[in-house]
């Protein structure tokens, strides 16, 4: 798509901050008013639009894409989003441990600290199991996790969904969202099995590229939350 505007500006309005293309306010794909909570986030989006060349590259505007997801997806379907995130707690990666090899099982012991953190800070004690069998979580633990999810604003929910879906762990997702662990560290903890297999059998180039892309998505979601709360 050809660039169709010259100037990008940010304007403070009673309802929040907007950025304008040649003086016209930008809307989401669902044609909602794109209103941002603060100037920092509005300016970050404006910079993505200012950086576009004659031929626009939507993939070079990742923050804009995420904000559109917040506006058109999370905000419009908040209850469904909460339920979707909670499912990562019902089957949290940290609850499922390897029986063998012993070295991998030992590495997974690192997850215990984050289960303890979830219990201490959110009142959610998750059960663990070894092997491939399913382990059910108590209604009390799931209710505590649901409260933690529902307490987030729309930007926090969007980021938490990204963190949890990429890591397979609501616990790690909450820890990243609350600044207890860096996105890169949480991502590495979620990939102990993949890292072990790569050490044993060698790394796959395609898998490495996919992992790098997912790690970047986590960093982007973390940046979105930080900007939205600035």
Features:
2 domains, about 55% helix, globular, 11 helices, ATP12-like, mainly alpha, ATP12-like fold, single chain, two-stranded parallel ribbon, three-stranded antiparallel β-sheet, about 230 residues, 5 strands
Structure description:
Helix 2 (62-74) packs across helix 7 (154-167) and helix 3 crosses helix 6. The mean pLDDT is 96. The protein has helices at 39-50, 62-74, 78-90, 102-108, 112-122, 139-150, 154-167, 170-177, 183-190, 192-201, 205-228, and strands spanning 8-13, 16-21, 24-25, 96-97, 129-130. The longest helix is centred in the last third of the chain and has 24 residues, at 205-228. With 230 residues, the protein is mostly helical. The chain has 2 domains: 8-60, 2-Layer Sandwich (ATP12-like); 78-228, ATP12 ATPase (ATP12-like fold, Orthogonal Bundle), CATH 1.10.3580.10. A 3-stranded antiparallel beta sheet has the order 1-2-3. Strands 4-5 form a two-stranded parallel ribbon. A hairpin with a 2-residue loop joins strand 1 (8-13) and strand 2. It is globular, with a radius of gyration of 20 Å. The chain has 11 helices and 5 strands, in the order βββαααβααβαααααα.
Topology:
Layout: E1 8-13, E2 16-21, E3 24-25, H1 39-50, H2 62-74, H3 78-90, E4 96-97, H4 102-108, H5 112-122, E5 129-130, H6 139-150, H7 154-167, H8 170-177, H9 183-190, H10 192-201, H11 205-228
Helix pairs in contact: 2-7, 3-6, 3-7, 7-8, 7-11
